[in-house]
């Protein structure tokens, strides 16, 4: 049998990795460096870029609007992270204890995460409607005579965005925690029960330490996601009323693609990136205090 | 508490949350089958009144034909399908090379692909936009599809794990029979990775279907709109036509529910392996 000339495995590796390497350069590393450079320029997209040094950063730090936006972002994270991870943990523990039909519950809890964001957000917008919405009519039925105007109320607009985001994501976090719970050996619980530990004590002293690795991962994930609020904000409130629900990610979009102020938006994006990086680092620093390997 | 009553409490809690989780979908569906006149009744009715008339699907007909959602649906299907194929192709090549082919320095590349996945979109989207403008790709599907053909962190990660877990013996046996390294990949390892390939495909399909920011940035002509983009423009053009908005929302949601129901195992595994969308 005549042998055909064969390509060497190393050459094949180069060919196989070429698209990813090119993509990494063109769509990731390049843009990361490029937007860092842009953040030092004053550039409306239709003019020529002018070197501005640290001006963009100085403007951001002195701008009352940007300050408001930073506070909104923080407030959103404070609502979203404990809300979504807390509900996810409770649901995961409940599901882990249920006998049958858990596939149905798991499926219904996870469904919001994978369905069209814009579509479900519009459905929520209709539910939140002040006079004709399902929610307020339900609340009135329960005896709350004067429920909030939700999306039209500056105090409630951002919490509304948080509610929709928690509703959408917590099923996903539940799934990740459930996978962690299923590796826990039930004999730990039996032993603690014999020693007379109640369900709450068993939860805090056995379940939480044993799934601390998945819990840590989910917390990081939720933190990162809490800074990336675009679709839901866009379709629910448009950042309003009067910027009450504008978070940093949305503000980047607005500056870059509504005002086309590319330099200022890049500086905002970098501050966002640095903030996420710092929070993640702090979390990793405290990791060994409570995460058990 | 005895065992029976604690089980009862458990199921009550699960059912209560399932109701919260599913009711927005139910309300979307009911509203999409209402007559416009029933929208602003107090208290709100739960009756899908359009179903009782002679044209039960009128809202859907209006949205699909008059408001062009049929076209948006086809656009979304084309974009999501093509982008997902690109993602499977690139990630399977890269995942295989990372797992089973010899190349110095490949781990540096792998680390870079993983690390850059955690950089927020906000940081890269502005240069990406400028790049697409420079390529002359504005108002085409290319910016929504082409990047998927180049790099995908989650898919590369997942397929690398999968290929690495497959035994070496197949490769050795094939090599004895004179198969070259490409044939070993194409005829032996790729077919074996089929479950992981399906997972990567469905996750990429769902993620691309759901995309809103890029269609807003890159598509100007209404005939190119994807469903989420079309939904937002329908919403901003017409005042309070919730029956139509919700019919459009059902059109946007249904394919994803269908994918989920048909490929539940792959969807769950894919998203769990990634931990992140995209």
TrEMBL record, chain A:
Keywords: Cell membrane, Membrane, Transmembrane, Transmembrane helix, Transport. The keyword Lyase does not apply. Gene3D superfamilies: MetI-like (1.10.3720.10). It comes from the Bacteria. PROSITE patterns: ABC_TM1 (PS50928). CDD domains: TM_PBP2. It is a multi-pass membrane protein. Its main location: membrane. Residues 70-283 form the ABC transmembrane type-1 domain. It is found in: Cell membrane. The chain crosses the membrane at residues 12-34, 74-95, 107-128, 203-224, 267-286. PANTHER family: ABC TRANSPORTER PERMEASE PROTEIN, INNER MEMBRANE ABC TRANSPORTER PERMEASE PROTEIN YCJO. Belongs to the binding-protein-dependent transport system permease family. This is Sugar ABC transporter permease.
TrEMBL record, chain B:
Residues 73-263 form the ABC transmembrane type-1 domain. The chain crosses the membrane at residues 7-30, 72-96, 108-135, 141-163, 184-206, 242-263. InterPro entries: MetI-like (IPR000515), MetI-like_sf (IPR035906). It holds the Pfam family BPD_transp_1. Keywords: Cell membrane, Membrane, Transmembrane, Transmembrane helix, Transport. It comes from the Bacteria. It is a multi-pass membrane protein. CDD domains: TM_PBP2. It is found in: Cell membrane. Its main location: membrane. Belongs to the binding-protein-dependent transport system permease family. This is Sugar ABC transporter permease. It comes from Devosia nitrariae.
């Amino acid at each position: 049998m005549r042998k055909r000339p064969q390509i060497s495995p190393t050459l094949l590796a180069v060919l196989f990795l070429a698209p990813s390497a090119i993509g990494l350069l063109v769509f990731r590393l390049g843009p990361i460096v490029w937007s860092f450079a842009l953040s030092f320029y004053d550039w409306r997209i239709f003019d020529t870029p002018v070197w501005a040094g640290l001006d963009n950063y100085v403007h951001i730090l002195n701008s009352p609007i940007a300050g408001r936006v930073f506070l909104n972002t923080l407030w959103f994270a404070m609502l979203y992270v404990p809300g979504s991870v807390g509900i996810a943990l409770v649901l995961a523990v409940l599901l882990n204890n249920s006998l049958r039909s858990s596939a149905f519950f798991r499926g219904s809890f996870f469904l919001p995460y994978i369905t069209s964001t814009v579509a479900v957000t519009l459905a929520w917008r209709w539910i939140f409607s002040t006079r004709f919405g399902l929610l307020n009519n339900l609340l009135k039925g329960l005896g709350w005579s004067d429920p909030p105007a939700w999306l039209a109320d500056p105090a409630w607009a951002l919490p509304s965005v948080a509610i929709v985001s928690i509703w959408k994501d917590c099923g996903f976090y539940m799934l990740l925690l459930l996978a962690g719970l299923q590796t826990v050996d039930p004999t730990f619980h039996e032993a603690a029960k014999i020693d007379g530990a109640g369900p709450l004590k068993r939860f805090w002293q056995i379940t939480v330490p044993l799934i601390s690795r998945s819990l840590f991962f989910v917390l990081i994930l939720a933190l990162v996601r809490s800074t990336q609020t675009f679709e839901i904000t866009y379709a629910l409130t448009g950042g309003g009323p009067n910027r009450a629900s504008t978070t940093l990610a949305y503000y980047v979009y607005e500056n870059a693609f509504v005002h086309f102020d590319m330099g200022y938006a890049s500086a905002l994006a970098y501050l966002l990136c640095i903030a996420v990086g710092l929070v993640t680092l702090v979390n990793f620093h405290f990791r060994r205090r409570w995460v058990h390997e | 508490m005895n065992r029976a009553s604690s089980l009862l409490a458990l199921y009550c809690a699960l059912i209560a949350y399932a109701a919260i989780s599913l009711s927005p979908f139910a309300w979307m569906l009911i509203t999409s089958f209402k007559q416009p006149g029933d929208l602003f009744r107090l208290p709100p009715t739960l009756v899908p009144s359009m179903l009782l008339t002679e044209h039960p699907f009128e809202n859907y007909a209006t949205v699909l034909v008059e408001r062009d959602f049929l076209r948006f649906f086809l656009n979304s299907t084309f974009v999501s399908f093509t982008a997902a194929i690109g993602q499977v192709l690139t990630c399977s090549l890269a995942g295989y090379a990372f797992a089973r082919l010899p190349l110095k320095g490949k781990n540096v590349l792998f680390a870079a692909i993983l690390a850059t996945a955690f950089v927020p979109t906000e940081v890269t989207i502005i240069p990406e936009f400028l790049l697409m403008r420079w390529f002359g790709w504005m108002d085409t599907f290319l910016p929504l599809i082409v990047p998927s053909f180049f790099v995908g962190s989650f898919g590369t990660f997942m397929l690398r794990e999968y290929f690495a877990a497959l035994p070496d013996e197949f490769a050795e046996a094939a090599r004895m029979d004179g198969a070259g390294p490409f044939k070993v990949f194409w005829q032996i390892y790729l077919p074996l990775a089929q479950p992981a390939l399906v997972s990567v495909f469905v996750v990429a399909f769902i993620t691309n279907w759901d995309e809103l920011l890029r269609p807003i940035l890159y598509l100007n002509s209404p005939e190119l709109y994807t469903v989420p983009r079309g939904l937002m423009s329908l919403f901003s053009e017409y005042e309070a036509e919730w029956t139509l908005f919700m019919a459009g929302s059902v059109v946007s949601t249904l394919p994803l529910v269908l994918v989920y129901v048909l490929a539940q195992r792959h969807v769950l595994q894919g998203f769990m392996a990634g931990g992140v969308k995209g």
